[in-house]
Amino acid sequence: xxxxxxxxxxxxxxxxxxxxxxxxxxxxxxxxxxxxxxxxxxxxxxxxxxxxxxxxxxxxxxxxxxxxxxxxxxxxxxxxxxxxxxxxxxxxxxxxxxxxxxxxxxxxxxxxxxxxxxxxxxxxxxxxxxxxxxxxxxxxxxxxxxxxxxxxxxxxxxxxxxxxxxxxxxxxxxxxxxxxxxxxxxxxxxxxxxxxxxxxxxxxxxxxxxxxxxxxxxxxxxxxxxxxxxxxxxxxxxxxxxxxxxxxxxxxxxxxxxxxxxxxxxxxxxxxxx
Length: 274
Description:
By secondary structure, the chain is α+β, with helices and mostly antiparallel strands. The chain has 9 helices and 10 strands.
């Protein structure tokens, strides 16, 4: 048995790979997979009992997976008889060159670690990046998957989230306030307009109306040349498809205004000829 384990499968100079070193690599790989599986199972149960946020749990498990695989790869290299310290020292110049050429990739990886560790951006969050609104589908170590409202998948480098202004609509509350503006003629009954707007917004299933902290409201915002501008403020959890929700509410308002004889004016320009 000893002779079989010490049998050389590959040899170059002083370096050789034996049956035992190859088996060690396989065992380390299997052990790492088992540790990752058992750790994930344990922490999922723990998170379920503590009602931990799923995004935070995913970030923690992803970091744990990277951590375990890093040590597993180092152990595999050592099991093959390769001096890890010597390998790094002998390839220092190469590593410096690679570092200069791949500095943007390293910046993305560091940014990914911060995103996963801090939890400021999590899977399922609705973000606004450079004026584009979308949902985070996945957070990787270097890039993240971002799906916009047109269901187009974008692969965004993680450093973008660290260097640019990003609006996280989901960070503090699951409900966000939105505004619909509408202009009515001056001869309209303003109190009736307010009542109609509030009645219209509560008819939509994606607006929050049963919580006093998120109650809809109406503001008379501005007196314009051609009418009075109203703002309908409401809260919704349907942030990703909010434009469809706004469109539905506008349709409801349009039909209600026609029913009650409320006029939506348009700008007019009087031209006098001399």
